Amino acid sequence: MADRFDLRRDIQFNTRVTSATFDETAHRWTVTTDKGESISATYCIMATGCLSQPNMPKFKGADSFKGAIYHTGNWPHEGVDFTSLRVGIIGTGSSAVQSIPEIAKQAKHLTVFQRTATYSVPAVNAPIDPELVRQIKADYAGFRKRNNETMVAAYARFAIGDKSALEVSPEERNRIYEEAWKVGGIMFLYASFTDVLIDKAANDTAAEFIRGKIRSIVKDPATAKLLSPDTVAGCKRLCADTGYYETYNRDNVKLVDVKSAPIEALTPTGLRTANAEFEFDAIVFATGFDAMTGSLNRIDIRGKASLPLKEKWEAGPRTYLGLTTVGFPNMFMISGPGSPSVLTNMVPSIEQHVNWIADCIRDLRVQGVASIEAQQQAEDAWVEHVNEVANATLFPSCNSWYLGANIPGKPRVFMPYLGFPAYVEKCNQVMAAGYEGFALNKS
Ligand code: NA7
Fold first, then answer.
1. 8 A C-beta contact, residue 208 and residue 234
2. Which DSSP string corresponds to 413-428?
3. pLDDT value at residue 21
4. pTM above 0.85?
5. Using a 6 Å cutoff on CB, does residue 115 contact ligand 1?
6. Pocket test for ligand 1, best of 51, 287, 335, 410 (most atoms within 8 A of CB)
7. Res 191: pLDDT
8. How far is 210 from 177, CA to CA, in rounded Å?
9. How far apart (Å, rounded) are the C-alpha atoms in residues 317 and 293?
10. Which of 29, 84, 275, 347 is the most buried (most CB within 10 A)?
11. CB of 271 closer than 6 A to ligand 1?
12. So what's the pLDDT on residue 50?
């Protein structure tokens, strides 16, 4: 791809950006790197990722463990061989449910430390049926257009439901869930019915369906019970797995509840919970990310009056459209907080941002605009709107990373914006109206 589009000349590898500072007189950004370079640019586009800053819990004795430590978000490129090792894994989110079945196949023994049970549906990963590929390729543009009209900009492998989960008979509901389960993928929650993520009673039907599946798959009733969540399904990101629940039927896998007896410390030979000691050769942290703001806050970004972004966002991120933030002219974010980002299929979301920003920069050049900056009123209204939409759903009802609730001390703010089509329309309107809500500085 890089060669085909002749991109290599614009890429500098193995470089960490350490700071980005806006010069109000020159209307330019100065970016410094860990290689000691200083680069001047008119625009600064932060394409730093929503889930790229790993979260490593600060356990006591963290450095004392003599074995190998891995984080699922920093996996060694050369791979890891767990053959004949005793392995512990912390966490049961998406990264864990994908790793656990694979590690269990290799390891001598695998202990899973679960704090909060997760809902997972079968991923049903498989080669795509050639006939489906042919159909998709016959109408790529139509395929993408149809997907982009769904709330999450994704393809559902089954007909998208247009009914409430509560308006159909229990038999019909079960049939629809069963079909979505068989087909696979997380559209199980987004597309089976209209209200699973809005109405608690509707959500309960999906939650109970998944719990039923857990009970039917996991042979040991105590393990099945511990694996069964009692929270809102999909409030924390729904997981998709390949043989996750089945893995607990293996003799070499054990599930340990660390909600009732939390992990207290790492030790030279393993780890200690409030009521037991465990010995391991390797420990895998599947403990997630400082999502959406972590990778931005890691860089010393300073806008007008040298205000650090981190300070501006002390009480939570504030943006206009998730693309820009007041006080930081000519800085754009790709899939920033306040944009649909992680609640969509990321590829169309990122493409929409890239296209919008590219068109915006073209317009600014044509019009001789030196800098663009979101206006306070527009930002405040957008933040309020993002919250209003989220509060009409079940999403704010649990301690998810969408809310920053997985990181101690992080402000509790629902970060992504729900609803891709409405968002795209809003961005297009803003542009068509001559960048409504932005101040364009010509000097
Ligand atoms: P997640 O979904 O944030 O999962 C992290 C897991 O780690 C989750 O089960 C946490 O339990 C657990 N965790 C975190 N800290 C601890 C401590 N201190 N003790 C015990 N357990 C802990 O991250 P993933 O990498 O799996 O997935 C991130 C996204 O990537 C995913 O949502 C998809 O969008 C793709 P908790 O639930 O907080 O009790």
1. no
2. ---SPS-HHHHHHHHH
3. 98
4. yes
5. yes
6. 287
7. 87
8. 9
9. 7
10. 29
11. no
12. 97
For residues 221-232, b (16+ Cβ closer than 10 Å) or e, as one string? Answer: eebbebbbbebb
* Mean pLDDT for the stretch of residues 398-417: 95
The 3-state secondary structure of 246-295, one letter per residue: HHCCCCCEEEEECCCCCEEEEECCEEEECCCEEECCEEEECCCECCCCHH
pLDDT value of residue 160: 86
Q: Which atom of ligand 1 is nearest to the CA of 57?
A: 18
Average pLDDT for 240-246? 98
| Ligand 1 pocket test, candidate residues 95, 271, 343, most atoms within 8 A of CB | 95
Residue whose Cα lies nearest atom 31 of ligand 1: it is: 94
Instruction: Using pLDDT thresholds of 50, 70 and 90, give the confidence band for residue 190.
Output: confident
pLDDT in tens, 142-163: 999 999 999 899 988 888 899 9
Q: Name the residue with the closest Cα to ligand 1, atom 34.
A: 237
Position in ligand 1 atom list of the atom nearest CA 288: 23
* Residue 108 pLDDT: 98
**Percent over 90 (pLDDT), the chain:** 97
Query: Ligand 1 within 6 A of 287 CB?
Result: yes
The answer to whether 110 touches 97, Cβ cutoff 8 Å, is no
Nearest CA, atom 4, ligand 1? 93
Q: Is 331 exposed, middle or buried (0-12, 13-18, 19+ CB in 10 A)?
A: buried
pLDDT tens for 355-371 read: 999 999 999 999 999 99
Q: Does any ligand 1 atom lie closer than 6 A to the CB of residue 96?
A: yes
The reply to whether ligand 1 has any atom less than 6 angstroms from the CB of 94 is yes
- Report pLDDT digits (tens) over 51-74: 999 999 999 999 999 999 999 999
Q: Whose CA is nearest to atom 10 of ligand 1?
A: 91
- Residue pLDDT, tens place only, 260-293: 999 999 999 999 999 999 999 999 999 999 999 9
**Residue 231, ligand 1, Cβ within 6 A:** no
Which protein residue's CA is at the shortest distance from atom 17 of ligand 1?
57
What is each CA distance from 323 to 42, 100, 244, 338, 374, in whole angstroms?
16, 36, 37, 8, 9
CA of 195 to the centre of ligand 1 (A): 26
Task: Find all residues with CB under 8 Å of 260, minimum gap 6, and list them.
Answer: 274
Residues 403, 236: contact at Cβ < 8 Å?
Answer: no
The one-letter amino acid code at 246 reads E
Say if residues 309 and 388 touch (Cβ distance below 8 Å).
no
Atom of ligand 1 nearest to the CA of 237: 32
